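Recap from last week: sequence in, structure out.
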Amino acid sequence: MLLRRKLRTTLALTVTLAAALVGATKGSASTARAEEGPPRERQLLFYNHAYGVFDRETADAVEHSPYLRKFADFEVRTTTGADGTTWTGRYLKGRETYLEIFGVGDVPDTALGSAGLAVSTERDGDLATVLERLPELGVTDPLEFRQTRDFGDGVPVPWFDGVFTTDQYDAFGTWAMEYRPEYFADPRGKTEPPSYPGDVGRERYLPDVYRDRLMRDVTSVRIAVTARDLENSVPLLRAGGFDVRPTAGGGVVADRGGTTIRLDAVPRERVGLRQFTFVLNEAVKKRHVERLGHSTLTVGPGARAAWDFEEPRGTGAGQPSGAARQENRH
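Predicted structure tokens:
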């Protein structure tokens, strides 16, 4: 891993973290495709996954929920990354997008309320174009890194290349990533064959188990972040082609690419992941409400669902971290 040791502790976790979906036909979202044309005229980055760090009650309720195993392609997994760094997450995976739920203690040195957002490319080489755009957006010294994955046999494989705009953050970070061809070529990854030349997309990376579940994809994510973390995130979203607009409360909404990203500016003690919304594979007739610790998942009626999270409780939420301790995980 090219990140310094202190950079490896929280941020990119697969972690939920492609394309222009939003809109459902028979409950399914329109799938975003890697568009043709020069990079300047097309979207380069798409929502991949996001994660949040919650109290143990919420994390344990998610981990042991029978309903979530019917709702999504659900997995609890401990992953070993670069230099032996490990993290344990609860993953809900869709066709192209996913999310991760962590409890306090699941990720080293990561406080309650911490969160992260990964945006990724669909075409090999587009991350280089994103890097070329960053200086004109005020980012002169981006932090580039490579993550590896160990499948448990002690033989790591290059996983993805990534970039942060800075190594300084409060409790949230956004990073861009591009899956490595070595990972797709490794049979241990169980990925799909390419759909077009240069395909490094999200749909190829994720399994097709979602077809037998309700959840198809993430349509929006809302995260409360500090003003500094917001400022550090916006250039990367703009470089990737998102349409970033200010909100009345001082935050931003980023559209384009299928999944709407909303970042609300708040004091540090109020940071945290607030909501996911989903499109389902099929419409459900009745509304189902599932209480999971300090969060509520509401499914239907129709082909939509929303998962709302309460503000973090207890001490330690969003504690200052100095240099970024965020690492890309999946």
